[in-house]
Amino acid sequence: MVESADYKNTSGEKIDPKLSYVARQWVVRLSSGQITAKELRRFKLWLAEDPSHQQAYERERTFWHQLDCLEGTVVWDQQDQELLKQPGGSRSFIHAHPRWTFMTGGMVAAFLALVLVYQDIKMFLLADHHTSVGQQQTVTLPDGSLAYLNTDTAIAVTYHADERRIDLLRGEAFFEVLANRQKPFRVVAQGGVIQAVGTAFVVHAHDQQTVVTVTEGMVAVSSAANTENLVLPSVAVHQGSEPSNSQGEISQTVERFDIERAVAWVQGIIEINGLPFAQAIAELDRYQPGRIVLLADLTQTIHVSGRFTLDGLDEAIAAVAATQGLTLVRVTPYLILIF
Amino acid sequence: MSETQMTEAFLENETGLFRFLARRLKCAFTARDLTHEIFLKIKDQNEIVQIHNRKAYLFRIAANLATDYMRVEQRRAEILSEADDLVRERVEGRHPERLLIARQELARLEQALTQLPSLSRKIFYLNRFGRKTQSEIAKEFGISLGTVEAHIRKVLNHLASVRDQ
Fold first, then answer.
1. Does A66 touch chain B (CB under 8 A)?
2. Interchain CB distance below 8 Å, A24 and B128
């Protein structure tokens, strides 16, 4: 018996490529060191569902281990280091022709990537603390106040003798502020200033408007970017209300609403409460690095509610799509189509 | 018991509570998080209860939080070890040659690897042969855990597609 034959397939039968794909995703998830109890249960159910699942899984699992053979066959680090030092090197490009075309391609790609991430780099340089997509972080500020950063968020921290100032450069943050009347706590977002004394509130910089949610105490919201002009008319916002501060002006709409929902993300929970389908998907999309493209007829969709955890984001997206009877296809890990 | 009295008691004992938790959990970060949780817990208490020994009460909360935390961690370790078994079981006990790949197949896979972006390859390499965990890699590259996993998935899917050609 040829033992290594199971590299192809032990039984000689054809395994459905779709099953192989699913099995591979499970192999990666199981080896990630991040799997949750719920996922593990789902995996075992999947495995027991059909002998073909077991077969596909065995094959992919074996393949995963066979990849150990690749160790040492490719000179990884050297290759990568060469990629890094190449532009300044004195090596003649003509002599290394294949490499040259490779390098040009690489440089063009690097340039394009640089243009694309320019915004990110700018943020990165300005920011003192930042999170990438899908990440959350708790930051202890110099005075012991806390800032919880939601996904894809950046803040800059400036503490002076008479002011504690946070610039929300992007995203959403929840602040728990220690009271200190001598040093007002101010958050600047898209030209609006939120001033707090001892309180907790969320600031979310949307595309064109800033939404402030107060969970405790009271804050003053004004449109003056210049903190010296803080005496300008400002709206006092009480606990449980949510005024939005569009760029440059304060909206008069101060609504009462559900605080729990607005700060659920601090506990790693995403709450969707009767949102239109497209908005619900956009909300989930904030937490994952890829893009979700909606090809479906949105006029046919119904409103969605749900409570999801950050760990189960993929399932959440699938579940929301399922409520509309829509099909979800993962083209790549970074591109999901819904139609 | 007014809320402010309890808060005061907390502030007085904050360092002690932190040290207590750090000793039990052997992790300063978790201890800090749980210390913070104690504060939230006492602030959440709406009913006014008469508590004679505020300090003892606070340490009682700390001990309970630490126990809960360790229980969850224990459960977590069990899950990870079970997942690890599911990927490894019986594979390692097999004849070594069963895990070998024919030379020409290996060459094809190597070739396939070079078609992948350098970052994906590097992450895959560090994870497989550099014995780095996904969270270590995420930290090193400043990317999210999900992104690290996506890179690994991408590499595996690509190699498998070459295998199935």
1. yes
2. no
Picking from B97, B100, B110, the nearest residue to A74 by CB comes out as B110
Q: Does residue A138 have a pLDDT over 80?
A: yes
Chain-chain contact of B134 with A34 (C-beta, under 8 angstroms) = yes
Question: What ipTM goes with this model?
Answer: 0.71
DSSP A11-78: S-PPPPHHHHHHHHHHHHHHHTT---HHHHHHHHHHHHH-HHHHHHHHHHHHHHHHGGGGTTTS-HHH
Is some CB atom of chain B closer than 8 A to the CB atom of A276?
no
pLDDT, tens digit, for every residue of A45-91?
999 989 999 999 988 998 888 888 887 665 555 555 444 333 333 33
Cβ of B87 within 8 Å of Cβ of A36? The answer is no
Comparing A157 with A209, the larger pLDDT belongs to A157
Domain that holds residue B9: 3-88
Between positions 214 and 273 of A, the ones with CB within 8 A of B are: none
pLDDT of residue A73: 62
The tokens 């929301």 sit on which residue?
A320
Alpha helices for B45-164 (secondary structure H): 54-88, 103-114, 118-128, 134-141, 145-163
> In the predicted model, is pLDDT for residue A298 greater than 90?
no
Rounded to a whole number of angstroms, the distance from the CA of B143 to the nearest CA of chain A is 7
Q: How confident is the model at residue A230 (pLDDT cuts 50, 70, 90)?
A: very low
What residues of B are in contact with residue A65 (Cβ under 8 Å)? 88, 91-92, 99
Domains, chain A, with CATH or none: 3-70 (no CATH), 76-116 (no CATH), 129-261 (2.60.120.1440), 268-338 (3.55.50.30)
